[in-house]
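Morning!

This is the sequence you dropped in the shared folder:
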Amino acid sequence: MDYAAAESYLLATINETVSRRMPYRLERMRAFLRELGDPQAKYPTVHIGGTSGKGSTSTIVAAALQAGGKRVGLHTKPHLRSMTERARVDGVPISEERFAQLLESMMPAIERTTVSHGRPTYYETLLALTFMAFAQEPVDVAVIEVGLGGRLDGTNIIVPRVAAITSVGYDHVDVLGETLEEIAEEKGGIAKPNVPLVIGVEDAGARDVVLAQAARVGAPVIELRDAATIEDVRLLRTAQAFTVATPRGRYEIVTTMLGEFQRRNTAMAVAILEQLDESLRPSIAAVQAALAPLVIPGRMEVYPGHPTVVFDIAHNAEKADHLVRSLRESFGDRRFSFVVAIGESKDATEIVRALATLPAGFIFTTFEAAGRHAIKPARLASIAESVGTWGRAVNDPVEALAIARRNSAASDVVVVTGSTFVVAQLREWWLVAA
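The structure's back. Tokens below.
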């Protein structure tokens, strides 16, 4: 099996509609991993969930562990360019050849699992492959981002050294519930007996739900507001400096990752790292060193120019609010031109409403992705009108970005945002074209 065949096999498994009545099946995931020899149990893990910030926080934690001298596996989703990004070791995706070899070696276990529990889904297969990759490297520790929710997510079969919930907001309401309390119930399901749970949940009702779940299973809770504070913020030309103060010490951070939400993600990562035992926990100096060069693709990723271009995945209202605050902080009263595509399962009205609080125009576009569908650009333009702004519909994403740049003044900022898929597509085009 080569990589093309592996990719084709996996894409063919994108055939399951997830709903609250048909959630991810942990029974199948457990059986599948047993068939593979339970690779996820062969190394320590850190488990990070939440509505927003979990991917960036996971990446920061992994980078700090690596700077502390550990060989680190990192699993985040979705990927931007290649499925191989789901299994990164010391920041580098496994090779396409290795990816194909692993999937081929898993086929007998897939067949046996299919007989007893049904065929593993796309997500389950990629996750199991990731666990296998980390076991065979081997890694010293792996940072695992929750896929969807928490309680019934395939990652919830691990027993981590530390777990975390970055936030609770409205996303995937068709699967997780229509209220923050219902969503918190799903996300809080990653709490486990005697495993420290770091939480950054701000909504009072959602926080109470998570605290009750932690108490019920016997998970000690560390709240971000008590564990770390952000001080001495200084905005530099293409970076920011700030201090994360904890009971253990002061982390003097300088990073090119911009935005208030990345300061919060950094504080969350520090709080998580401080719960690890001394055999894994990096020093303050290692954390500082890790943050200095770190870039997270598609997360407030800035390319200065005339106009400046920013790529940021903001596929729910909470992320859109974070993006707006970060753009306002970083670029002041400059005018923005948004190039936006949004998945059909998302709350487009609230996303556009949040973005429209800035002085901005919109070009709405679409994306192509197996098993995923975008809201039609003309429909997004109608939504924009309903919230008091305006937008142009352009079906071709590359053309949409070209028009946004052409119609922008030299001092303006063009922001590609919304779905992961449109950010990934246009970011890849930009890196080649630029």
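Headline: Residues 31 and 72 are 26 Å apart (CA to CA).

More detail when I'm at my desk.
O.
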